[in-house]
Design goal:
This protein has about 350 residues and is α+β, with helices and mostly antiparallel strands. It has twelve helices and twelve strands. It binds zinc ion.
Length: about 350
């Protein structure tokens, strides 16, 4: 009881500080559009932080951004990719060995679905009667290496790697502090329990749910090489902890994500602001927790403006990363620098 009270007081302190500093004021046209999208998509959340120090530059829908946890979908893949790269060469595991994606992932026997998995996941049944999980491209991505799997968001590549390496899930969760509240550091309840849920967690399905603020914190570490900095209002963020991911792996993943807005899943993304340059990005579409069919949309975008690097995380309760979350991101980037 005491512990709960303390968590709430931490959260309230952050909220109170945010309300005292009108981050979401200053551009009423943008606020109007975001409020419309908020109604249309059943809730949206936006946070923009400065890369490195994690200073909060903009926040829309504080309660959702700080307090509500959602499956991350494909924005989990860059975090998984960095962990895979660090594991390369250990016990014969090869992070870069290509995977042949036919559009279907068949779990190995050790990770075969149980009854509880069948209730949660939208599993299909192959001609051989074996259950499988679909890739984002029905016909498959063909022979896919790690860079291409990230740029085009191939589920089969990541699921195959997580199926091969039994420790992938535990390493992913511990390396990025996914079960640590991004502000208090308190340990959150674990979502994934079955072997298949742990494999699917590596593509952001089945667990572990994260807040929009947590996504911003992890991607700040990925993109800037910083530890897990507590997002803050004054540019002097305290460090929650370091991440157990090499700088080399983080730099490599960031370099790969620079292709997403040129040739990958955000190649059709449009915004109109010459003061903003996108450096790297990732989209994600995640199944609602413990539901089979409804979808959340996510975007993470590293951008540069006026010599500063910023990280934008956009979330849409109902929708996809490529459409609804992208519309939220466009709205924020179109007006960035104009009354902020
Ligand atoms: Zn694929």
């Amino acid at each position: 009881m005491k512990k709960t009270a303390r968590i709430i007081s931490f959260g309230t302190a952050v909220l109170a500080a945010v309300f005292a500093f009108p981050l979401s004021a200053g551009n009423s046209a943008r606020e109007d559009i975001l409020r419309q999208l908020d109604g249309k998509y059943g809730g949206i959340g936006v946070v923009v932080i400065e890369a490195g120090c994690a200073k909060i530059e903009y926040l829309f829908n504080e309660t959702l951004v700080l307090n509500r946890r959602f499956p991350a979908g494909s924005i989990m893949k860059p975090l998984t990719a960095a962990v895979l790269i660090d594991h390369d060469g250990i016990n014969g595991f090869r992070a870069d060995a290509p995977v042949d994606c036919s559009g279907r992932f068949y779990p190995s026997n050790k990770n075969a679905p149980g009854a509880s998995d069948e209730n949660i996941f939208n599993l299909q049944t192959g001609e051989n009667g074996q259950p499988y999980f679909k890739c984002s491209v029905r016909a498959g991505h063909g022979t896919t290496g790690l860079p291409s799997a990230l740029i085009h968001s191939c589920n089969v590549f990541f699921l195959t790697k997580a199926d091969q390496w039994d420790g992938c899930y535990e390493k992913l969760v511990s390396a990025w502090g996914l079960l640590k509240d991004p502000v208090t550091g308190n340990t959150l309840t674990r979502d994934a329990s079955t072997p298949l849920q742990k494999v699917l967690a590596c593509i952001g399905e089945g667990g572990e749910r994260i807040t929009v603020l947590k996504a911003a914190q992890c991607f700040n570490s990925l993109f800037s090489g910083a530890p897990l900095v507590i997002p803050n209002l004054n540019g002097k963020g305290n460090v929650l902890s370091d991440v157990a991911v090499s700088l080399g792996a983080r730099e490599r993943v960031t370099a790969i994500l620079s292709s997403v807005s040129r040739t990958g899943t955000m190649k059709d993304f449009k915004f109109d602001n010459s003061a903003v340059r996108i450096i790297a990005a990732k989209t994600g579409t995640a199944t609602h927790y413990r539901k089979k069919y409804d979808r959340h949309g996510w975007n993470v975008i590293l951008f540069e403006t006026n010599g500063k690097k910023m990280i934008l995380v956009s979330f849409a309760m109902n929708g996809s990363g490529g459409k609804e979350a992208a519309n939220v991101s466009s709205c924020v980037l179109n007006s960035w620098g104009n009354g902020k």
